[in-house]
Amino acid sequence: MTHASDLPTWAAVLTALLVLIGAGLTLAGAIGTLRFGSFYERVHAPTLGTSWGTGAIALASIVFFSALGSRVVVHELLIAFFITVTTPVTLMLLVRAAIYRDRTEGTADVPARSALKPSGGNIAPGSDGAG
Amino acid sequence: MTADILVWSVIAAQIMLVVAMGCYAWRVVRGPRAQDRVLCLDAMYVCAMLLALTVGIRTGSGVYFEAALIIGVLGFASSVALAKFLMRGEVIE
Predict the structure, then answer these.
(1) Average pLDDT rounded to a whole number, residues B53-75
(2) B54 and chain A: CB distance < 8 Å anywhere?
(3) Residue A112 pLDDT more than 70?
(4) Residue pair A45/B39 in contact by the 8 Å Cβ criterion
(5) Which residue from A131, B21, B65, B76 could staple onto B47, CB 3.0 to 4.6 Å apart?
């Protein structure tokens, strides 16, 4: 790693700090995935890594390559933007699928559709409106 | 001194990311239901992408950025396909 000695001190310290913050947040999310009890709690944990875990490491990469090439390099923003946009889409699709599966099996911790709308009567599980 | 700070923090970050991938892999293997497995597979894609970014910082080459971008795009596509499969039982209707 010979190129790192060309970096100014502030850039090296900032990069190191951001990389550690990002990796630590991702690890915290992973441990949360192990420790939470139900799927609807677990779905929250990895978003630590996809929000500021990704953001901090992308910022570290921006700082590092900008200081290394002494010009502004911002193409890592593309990754941060893409992850920020796609993660909610994925998780909402996944949670809708999970709710649908739990309802068809009649699991106790998911309220049935008839319990949410008493006037609506007994709606078939397939008429969820998703997809 | 400056290089040492950067080298050791990037190595520590890579170890943390690998441990995070191990936690997710445990959930993929043991996860009680299919949605847990899909969730943790998606999170493993993100971890692999962050790992590629840190390898790029460590080697100082810009090649790993493209690899990280491709991993991110493929992870999104595969997770959406798997969620659709859980919902409908088929991917392409």
Answers:
(1) 90
(2) yes
(3) no
(4) no
(5) B21
pLDDT per position as a tens digit, A72-105: 888 889 999 999 999 999 999 999 998 888 888 8
List CB contacts (< 8 A) between A94 and chain B. 35, 38-39, 42, 79, 83, 86
| CB atoms B13 and A58 under 8 Å | no
CA distance A58 to A66: 12
Q: Is the ipTM of this complex over 0.95?
A: no
Are A23 and B2 an interchain contact pair (Cβ–Cβ within 8 Å)?
Answer: no
Q: What are the residue boundaries of the structural domains of chain A, listed by start?
A: 3-109
In this structure, chain B runs to a length of: 93
Give the E-state strand segments of chain A in sequence order. Answer: none
Residue B42: closest CA among chain A residues belongs to which residue?
A90
